């Protein structure tokens, strides 16, 4: 798996499947987002903020930038790599997720003559690599587009620059050949606005996740802003939604 992308890839005419990683390749029932929310809140408090103010800014930055870390870097001049070490890097992922043979079979059955498979995550490369390795699918991912925390001006979903960069690095020029699945409505809507062709919103109805530090029932606020996107609750449904990309009779 290529997670360090030093240069642009050679243009390849095959479509690219961009897979979000967290809360998409594994279920929100793992409680990883809750554990992460607590660590991020603690990081805000460590900056000298009162509990209420920390919660307020956590939600504000997540809402405005798609990632609380973006607000921390812009307004508090923190070291994003220090943040990653204390938040993502401290998660006991091995105790929270396990190898997933069903996910592995799903990715194995994608016809590689028809599509390539990449990760597209707002996490840093080390976290993405850990998750994919634990799930047992790292060898099935051609490359990972991640937030480069070593760059003080890094971009993230749902910022257009992040999607444009993903296309360049994956070596694809036609947005209609971009297949995309994410658990975030905002991230899927942003891809749609850029003309990405086959967008899917992964929405585990009834489960609880955390957004901006606040608990949220997944799917509780409907399907607004996703009129042209398919909504699924199980990844195996991709076999039907993107049937043209899978090996027949697999």
UniProtKB/TrEMBL annotation:
One of its GO terms (biological process) is nucleotide catabolic process. Gene3D superfamilies: 1.10.150.450, HAD superfamily/HAD-like. It holds the Pfam family Hydrolase. InterPro entries: HAD-like_sf, HAD-SF_hydro_IA, HAD_sf, Pyr-5-nucltdase, SSM1_domain. GO terms for molecular function: nucleotidase activity. PANTHER family: PHOSPHATE METABOLISM PROTEIN 8-RELATED (PTHR47438). This is Pyrimidine 5-nucleotidase. It comes from Phlebiopsis gigantea (strain 11061_1 CR5-6) (White-rot fungus).
């Amino acid at each position: 798996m290529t997670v360090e992308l030093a240069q642009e890839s050679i243009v390849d005419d095959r479509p690219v499947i961009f897979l979000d990683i967290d809360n998409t390749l594994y279920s929100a029932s793992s409680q990883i987002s809750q554990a992460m929310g607590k660590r991020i809140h603690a990081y805000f408090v460590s900056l000298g903020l009162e509990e209420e103010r920390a919660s307020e800014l956590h939600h504000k930055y997540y809402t405005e930038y798609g990632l609380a870390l973006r607000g921390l870097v812009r307004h508090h001049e923190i070291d994003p790599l220090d943040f990653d070490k204390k938040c993502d890097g401290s998660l006991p992922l091995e105790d929270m997720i396990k190898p997933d043979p069903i996910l592995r079979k799903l990715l194995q059955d994608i016809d590689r003559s028809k599509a390539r498979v990449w990760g597209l995550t707002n996490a840093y490369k080390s976290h993405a690599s850990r998750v994919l390795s634990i799930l047992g699918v790292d060898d099935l991912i051609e490359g990972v587009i991640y937030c480069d925390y070593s760059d003080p001006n890094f971009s993230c979903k749902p910022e257009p620059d992040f999607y444009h960069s993903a296309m360049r690095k994956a070596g694809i020029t036609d947005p209609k050949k971009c297949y995309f699945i994410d658990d975030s409505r905002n991230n899927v809507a942003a891809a749609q606005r850029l003309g990405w062709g086959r967008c899917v919103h992964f929405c585990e109805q009834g489960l609880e996740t955390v957004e901006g530090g606040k608990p949220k029932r997944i799917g509780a606020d409907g399907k607004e802003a996703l009129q042209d996107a398919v909504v699924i609750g199980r990844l195996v449904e991709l076999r039907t939604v993107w049937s043209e990309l899978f090996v027949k009779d697999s």
